[in-house]
C-alpha cells in the first residue's frame, strides 16, 4: 500500500505563523520594558484594542542596508546584520535611575515605542489613558536612558566599521538615524552603510618602488577621517611648509603592526594607530632619512613606526617592536645581552603577548633587565590589559630566557616598583608635618626602632633558632648510628 504524500507547507500559512511569532515577541519585550521601568501592572490595564494600536505604531527593529550607488562584497551585508544583531543583545540600558535594565535591542523597539506612545497619549483616548500616561511620564522624562542607548548604538556602528575597514581595500562607515517608515505610522532605526577606496601612492625609495595606502578611519555619521601631519612638526621634512603632510602606510607595515601587538584586536590596533598619528612624537635622522614615530597602545608605548617623507607625503614602511634593533630601547638591550635579530625572533621577544604573561611579569631578573633597557612600558601595560579582561594563554619558557639573556640569578632586586617608591618619597616630602602630627597624637604609640637595632634582633632570633635545633639534630644522628651499630654486631656474631 502506497504511503500518503506529505502536503507541502502553505506559504501563506508560514507567513501568518511568522507574523504571529514576531508579534508575540514584541509584546514580550513590551512587558519586559514595563517591568524594568517599575510599572509592570500597566500592561494589564491596556485593552486588546490598545495593544493592537501600540503594535501598529511601534518602533521597528533596526534596518541595515547599503547606500545607493555604493558597493559591498557578497555576503558582507549578511555578516553585518548577524554581528549587529548579536551586539544589540550584548549591551544593557538602565531605564530608570533605581529601576531595572533591558538589552539594547529591547530598548530600541519596546522602549522607544513606550516613549512615543506616552507623548501621543491623551486622556480622552480611553478610560484609563490618564493613569497610563502618568505612570509612563517618569520614563519619558528620563533622557539618560536614551543617551546611554544611542551611545551604545554609536559604539556598535564604529566597531563594525573598524572591523570591516582595510586601508589596502575599502573603508566603511554607517549613517544611523531614526526615520519614519513607508506607511507613515511606524518609525525605526535605519543603518545605511557607505564605503570608499583609499587613495594609493607609489614612491621611489633607494631605487625601489613602494606602494602606500592613505591612512584614515571611519567617523560616526561621517565619512573617513584622513590623517595629515602639519609640515615642520618636530623637524618633519616636507617640500612645502604651507601644505600638510599626508600619511600613507604599506601593507607590510599593517601586517607587522598586528603580528607584533598580537594580544589586542585588529580594530583596537587601527584605532590606536590613528591616535598615535594625530599628535605624533617622532625623531628624524637626517643621515638615513628615517623617521621613527612612537606607537602607543592604550597610551603606553609598544614600539615605533618606521617612515620616510617624500615630498609632502609620509610613508610608513614597517612597525618595529620596542625590543627591535634600530630603536633606542632595542639597541640598549642588545648592548646588555648581545642578542641578535634571529635570537629575538626565536625567543619571541618581538611580540607583545610574550610580556603580557604572569611568568614574565613576576620574574624579577627578566623584568629588571628590560626596565634597565627602557622597556618599562611593557610591564605597565599588563595591568591595563587585565582591566580590559584580555586574557593570554601563552606560557613562555623563563628558564630558557634567563639562560639566553645571561642573567645573574644570585642577584636580588627590590620588590617595590621604582615608580611606586618615587611616588611614596614624593608624598612624604609634601606632607611631613601631617605624618609627624599623626604619630604624636596617638596615646601609647610605640616609637619605631632604628634600622640597626632591627637587624641585630633578627640575627639574635636566628641564633636562638639554631641553638634550639642542635639537640634535636644530635639526637637523630645518635639514634640512626646506634641502630646501624647494633645491626653490624648481630651480623658479626652470626658469622662467628
Instruction: Please tell me how large the radius of gyration is.
Output: 35 Å
The secondary structure category is: alpha+beta
Total strands: the figure is 15
Shape: extended
Q: What is the percent of helical residues? A: 40-55%
Number of domains: 3
Proportion in β-strands: 15-25%
Low-confidence stretches: 416-453
Largest sheet: 8 strands, mixed
Tell me the distance between the termini.
105 Å
Overall average pLDDT: 81
Quickly count the helices. 19
Structure characterization notes:
By secondary structure, the protein is α+β, with helices and mostly antiparallel strands. The chain folds into 3 domains: 13-196, no CATH class; 198-321, no CATH class; 336-425, no CATH class. 50% of the residues lie in helices and 18% in strands. Strands 6, 7, 10, 11, 12, 13, 14 and 15 form an 8-stranded mixed beta sheet that branches. A 3-stranded mixed beta sheet has the order 1-5-4, with helices on one face. Strand 13 (291-297) and strand 14 (300-310) form a beta hairpin. It starts with 10 loop residues before the first helix and ends with a helix. Mean pLDDT is 81; it is low at 416-453.
Helix and strand arrangement:
Layout: H1 11-37, H2 42-45, H3 48-56, E1 59-66, H4 76-88, E2 92-94, E3 101-103, H5 104-120, H6 129-141, H7 143-164, E4 171-180, E5 187-196, E6 200-205, E7 208-214, E8 216-218, E9 224-226, E10 228-229, E11 245-249, H8 251-260, H9 266-278, E12 282-284, E13 291-297, E14 300-310, E15 313-321, H10 328-337, H11 341-346, H12 352-355, H13 358-361, H14 364-372, H15 377-387, H16 398-405, H17 418-430, H18 432-441, H19 451-495
Parallel strand pairs: 1-5, 11-15
Antiparallel strand pairs: 2-3, 4-5, 6-7, 7-11, 8-9, 10-11, 12-13, 13-14, 14-15
Helix pairs in contact: 1-5, 4-7, 5-6, 5-7
Amino acid at each position: 500500500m502506497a504511503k500518503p504524500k506529505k502536503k507541502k507547507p502553505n506559504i501563506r500559512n508560514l507567513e501568518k505563523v511568522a507574523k504571529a511569532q514576531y508579534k508575540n515577541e514584541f509584546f514580550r519585550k513590551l512587558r519586559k520594558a514595563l517591568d524594568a521601568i517599575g510599572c509592570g501592572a500597566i500592561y494589564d490595564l491596556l485593552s486588546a484594542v490598545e495593544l493592537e494600536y501600540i503594535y501598529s505604531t511601534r518602533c521597528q527593529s533596526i534596518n541595515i542596508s547599503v547606500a545607493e550607488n555604493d558597493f559591498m562584497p557578497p555576503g558582507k551585508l549578511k555578516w553585518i546584520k548577524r554581528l549587529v544583531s548579536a551586539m544589540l543583545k550584548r549591551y544593557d540600558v538602565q531605564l530608570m535611575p533605581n529601576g531595572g535594565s533591558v538589552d539594547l535591542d529591547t530598548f530600541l523597539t519596546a522602549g522607544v515605542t513606550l516613549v512615543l506612545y506616552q507623548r501621543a497619549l491623551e486622556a480622552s483616548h480611553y478610560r484609563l489613558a490618564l493613569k497610563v500616561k502618568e505612570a509612563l511620564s517618569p520614563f519619558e522624562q528620563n533622557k539618560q536612558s536614551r543617551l546611554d542607548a544611542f551611545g551604545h548604538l554609536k559604539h556598535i556602528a564604529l566597531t563594525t566599521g573598524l572591523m570591516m575597514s582595510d586601508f589596502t581595500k575599502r573603508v566603511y562607515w554607517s549613517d544611523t538615524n531614526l526615520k519614519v517608515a513607508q506607511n507613515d505610522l511606524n518609525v525605526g532605526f535605519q543603518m545605511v552603510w557607505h564605503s570608499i577606496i583609499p587613495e594609493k601612492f607609489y614612491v621611489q625609495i633607494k631605487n625601489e618602488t613602494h606602494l602606500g595606502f592613505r591612512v584614515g578611519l571611519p567617523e560616526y555619521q561621517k565619512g573617513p577621517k584622513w590623517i595629515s601631519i602639519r609640515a615642520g612638526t618636530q623637524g618633519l621634512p616636507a617640500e612645502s611648509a604651507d601644505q600638510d603632510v599626508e600619511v600613507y602606510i604599506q601593507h607590510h607595515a599593517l601586517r607587522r603592526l598586528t603580528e607584533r601587538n598580537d594580544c589586542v584586536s585588529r580594530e583596537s590596533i587601527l584605532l590606536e594607530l590613528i591616535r598615535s598619528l594625530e599628535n605624533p612624537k617622532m625623531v628624524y635622522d637626517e643621515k638615513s632619512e628615517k623617521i621613527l614615530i612612537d606607537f602607543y597602545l592604550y597610551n603606553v608605548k609598544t614600539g615605533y613606526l618606521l617612515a620616510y617623507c617624500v615630498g609632502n607625503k609620509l610613508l610608513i614602511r614597517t612597525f618595529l617592536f620596542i625590543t627591535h634593533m634600530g630603536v633606542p630601547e632595542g639597541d640598549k638591550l642588545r648592548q646588555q645581552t648581545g642578542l641578535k635579530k634571529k635570537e629575538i625572533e626565536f625567543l619571541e621577544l618581538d611580540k607583545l603577548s610574550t610580556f603580557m604573561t604572569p611568568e614574565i611579569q613576576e620574574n624579577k631578573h627578566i623584568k629588571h633587565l628590560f626596565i634597565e633597557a627602557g622597556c618599562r612600558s611593557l610591564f605597565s601595560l599588563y595591568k591595563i590589559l587585565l582591566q580590559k579582561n584580555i586574557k593570554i594563554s601563552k606560557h613562555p619558557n623563563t628558564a630558557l630566557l634567563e639562560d639566553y639573556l645571561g642573567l645573574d640569578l644570585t642577584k636580588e632586586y627590590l620588590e617595590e616598583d621604582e615608580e611606586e617608591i618615587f611616588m611614596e618619597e614624593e608624598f612624604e616630602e609634601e606632607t611631613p608635618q601631617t605624618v609627624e602630627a599623626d604619630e604624636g597624637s596617638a596615646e601609647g604609640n610605640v616609637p619605631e626602632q632604628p634600622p640597626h637595632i632591627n637587624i641585630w634582633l633578627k640575627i639574635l632570633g636566628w641564633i636562638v633558632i639554631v641553638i634550639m635545633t642542635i639537640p634535636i639534630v644530635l639526637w637523630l644522628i645518635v639514634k640512626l648510628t646506634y641502630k646501624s651499630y647494633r645491626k653490624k654486631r648481630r651480623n658479626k656474631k652470626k658469622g662467628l
